Amino acid sequence: MVVPSRVADRLLAETLGRPAMIEELRRLCDTVGGRTSGAPSGAEAEEWAIGLLSGWGLRVRTEDLPVRAWLRGDLEAEVRAPVRWRLTALAHGNAPSSADVTAPVVDVGHGEREDWERAAGEVTDRFALCDEAASEGRRKLHRTEKLAMAVEFGAAGLLIESSASGGLPRTGVCYHGEAPIPSVGISLEDGRRLRRLLESGVQPTVRVAMSNRFVDGVARTVLADIAGALAPEEAVIAGAHLDSWDVAQGAVDNGQGVAIVMEMARALAALGEAPRRTLRFALWAAEEVGLMGSTAYVANHAAELDRLAAVMNFDMTGDPTGFYTPGIAEPGDLLRGLARQLGPLGVREEFGRRASLHSDHQPFMLAGVPIVSVAGRLDEEAGRYYHAVGDTFDKVAAPAVCRAACVGATTMWALAEAPERPFARLSPAQVRAMVAEADLGEALAAMGVRLPED
Length: 454
Ligand SMILES: [Zn+2]
Fold this sequence. Notes:
alpha/beta; 8-stranded mixed β-sheet; 5-stranded mixed β-sheet; binds zinc ion
């Protein structure tokens, strides 16, 4: 066994036998709800986390993060011709503070580069309409990439059709800074109707008017440590983003990840015995508007990154099935042994290796720090409400949260206790190769992120 039974059994008893975080997550969802970093709701969530972590005896500190918070205002989105109807829509995060555009609609398919090239000329000064899907075998583009191309090809605005039926438009950040053109998520049903009209040769005209606010605020990254017994200067970080979209309660995205990380912290503190390296729990701020908290941590602690044995990220993590280890070529005896030890909880010897972006592992991964996350299966029902009004506490899968906390805590302990560092840090050249292999260059450019140089 990789983790001795005196430790593993106690972690199992804490996380599965007497979990505390489901009720605490309910309290966060119902009394705070959506959490905008830099706004009062974000500060209330930070206080909630600080209170719990300190109460369990962890050493808690915070790091200030200046943010320009985007506050949703009014939105009017309607089809003006050939018939009038109101679109079921949500403005995307960082959409302009003020816009009022009326223009014909052009279908740009999935919003991939070929789609824009095909529609070039036609799309200028019009609303571009695309969906959330990708062509066969292609990586799904992030909405920031689609908006970057909408701007490049001169569109007057962007409409992204939701992939979930039932009147569920999606929000989400669309631009690095204030977007130059209005961008909204619309329901699948509205998107389909617009496309059917276009296919039948009828040209719809849409009006989108919006007002939003940008306010300067200070969010806090909440950090809680259990000091290592033998090598306290080395650490394993387990993190989750605490902020969420304003339209719902941020229950699955990412209350679920927060609950897992905090349950891990509680169970590992209850052990009363520290492993070799420091265990650090991080609740990142402003992830939804561009991974700001984790990015600032990587920048501010650059000199300490060499001493990070691994970073674990929990974002909408579901029922554990294996591990996500981008950049790690060989999981080795430690992770293979852990997968076998955790087999009864549903973990298999599966190691996702392809690099991915858009969550808080990204800045660490690009700095070459080993990433060892728990991979899980999310309930299809919960995935439907991603960034939509239905992301509420009733969608949280309590058994999955408890099992993921158990797998996460056991894995974190093993990574922190291993006599030798389990994985080497990647060099800038290895990071660039990993990014190229996963075809992520354009996505990083749309986020304003530069790759490490030698
Ligand atoms: Zn998330």
